[in-house]
Amino acid sequence: MVYSVGSNLFDHIIVYSVGANLFAHITAMSRDNLLKGRVSLAYHAYHVTICTHNRALLFADFTDGRLVVAEMRKLHEEGIVNSLAWVIMPDHLHWLFQLGEKMTLSEAMKHFKARSAQALNRHHGQHGVIWQKGYYDHALRCEEDIQAVARYIVANPLRAGLVKKMGEYPLWDAIWIRGE
């Protein structure tokens, strides 16, 4: 028997059975189809992941990482986002924030990526692509524990084996631990 269905995450899932065994063939969604399901709601929390172009290890350099943090802070100060937690990894970043009313999620990410790319290129005296096209986002559901998501985000350097304890990693923050 063969079944072909669509889903929220995949273009097609073809499920078939051979005897007592069940198999599935999954076709991933294209970028355009992923965008169709993207929701942008003011005051909603989002976990966004943005990768560097060709996964270049740009942020192994602390100064480059701090330039990106400065641009994240500007979006926070301008009320575009309310930054909750973030970590800058060598080739990508994770950012948990609450979207404000001033921009859609797509506009905020485009604004951030453009400004941070300009800052990095200016710092290095060059013109070049810094970020991969697009980004991954996850709109948090009401039942999700936002602090657990924040802990997951800031623990990335530990899981990646970059440090043995979080205090050793310089490029992260979360609102729940400021002042400690």
Unreliable spans are 1-19, 21-31
Number of helices: 5
Q: Which range does the strand content fall in? A: 25-35%
CATH superfamily of the largest domain: Transposase IS200-like
CATH class annotation of the largest domain: Alpha Beta
Q: Give me the side-by-side strand order of the main sheet.
A: 7-4-6-5-8
Q: Kindly report the average pLDDT value.
A: 84
Q: How many structural domains?
A: 2
- Give the terminus-to-terminus CA distance: 59 Å
Order of helices and strands: EEEHEHEEHEHHE
Radius of gyration: 19 Å
Q: What share of the residues lie within helices? A: 25-40%
CATH architecture of the largest domain: 2-Layer Sandwich
| Helical/strand content category | alpha+beta
The major sheet is characterized as:
5 strands, antiparallel
Give the overall shape, derived from the CA principal axes. globular
Extended strand count: 8
CATH topology of the largest domain: Alpha-Beta Plaits
Brief overview:
The chain has 180 residues and is an alpha+beta fold.
Report on the structure:
By secondary structure, this protein is an alpha+beta fold. The chain folds into two domains: about 1-35, no CATH class; about 40-175, Transposase IS200-like (Alpha-Beta Plaits). Helices cover about 30% and strands about 30% of the residues. The protein has five helices and eight strands; from the N terminus they run E-E-E-H-E-H-E-E-H-E-H-H-E. It has helices at about 30-35, 60-75, 105-125, 145-155, 155-160, and strands at about 1-5, 10-20, 20-30, 45-50, 80-90, 90-100, 135-140, 170-175. Strands 7-4-6-5-8 form a five-stranded antiparallel beta sheet, sandwiched between helices. The protein has a three-stranded antiparallel beta sheet with strand order 1-2-3, with no helix packed on it. A hairpin with a 3-residue loop joins strand 5 (about 80-90) and strand 6. Helix 2 runs antiparallel to helix 3. The chain is globular. The N and C termini lie far apart (about 60 Å).
